[in-house]
Amino acid sequence: MITFFSVPKAFKGHIGVIQTNAIESWLKLNPCPEIILLGNDEGVAEVCQKYALRHIPDLKYHPEWRAPLLDDIIGTAKKKANFNNLCFIHTDIILFQDFLEAFQLISNRFEKYLMVSSRWNMNIDKRLDLSSEKERHSLRQSALAENDMYSSGGSDFFAFPKQLFKSIPPFLLGRGYWDNWMMYQALREGAALVDTTSDVVALHQNHDYAHIDGVNIGERNTDRVFKAQQGNYNLFLAGGQKNVYNNYDADYVLRCGFFYSTWGLSFLKRHIKSTVRRIKLRIKGK
User: What CATH number corresponds to the domain at position 189?
Assistant: First the structure.
């Protein structure tokens, strides 16, 4: 089994709507994962009580920017989770049964792994009825039909065993680059980095990024997140662009339930391209 853990924002307005949608989708997975919500923003305790989720209210924050710190989040989850397999997931991501199907394949094959996936973006502004399998299937098909996939630059969930990530910098959650560093670090620790984009529909419900200094209310352009002061701070902690990996740096791709090495002919061009990119960045010292 697996433990999900997430750090939601306050459950109010549009953010409250999409976070509720996401959590209800996780609860429909079979078997249902253990779910831990961290933090004590408005409504978090009440949502945990309503859905019988575990709540850990205490988090460490950056003293100036009041952003949750990734090392504390993951460290706390490792200590408190009842299962060895963990999934750190953003509270705006709707999942379907294909996530668990992919997770079972990966966790059965690899002792150390990091499971990632690009996301499918949709504008959702209302509570969804996810009670029936038919409704969930229809929503999944809608995401595929809209075909608004975020680039390979990041992932909105990270599934891994507790023994991974022995040391983590105090990244600011949600401010960019930390997710790319996790892919880099997983490979450094000898884990299999598995891109599941082909098999897993991780549905991201679009929202603004006004919680970040320098980003305007209603603005949904993620480029501003990376260029903001807090994004540059995370890039510094990551050790520069040379340690900013993406899904194309994966050494395995899961497609139709089968694992493909990116050294194989089907993905060799992709592997070479990502390797050349990393070499150029290291030569430039970035």
Answer: 3.90.550.10
DSSP bridge partners of 86: 3, 160
pTM across the whole model: 0.89
Residue 251 belongs to what domain range? Answer: 2-284
Question: How many structural domains compose the chain?
Answer: 1
Mean pLDDT, consecutive 10-residue stretches, the chain (286 aa), reads 97 95 97 97 97 96 91 97 98 97 98 96 93 92 87 84 96 90 96 96 81 50 63 91 90 95 79 71 64
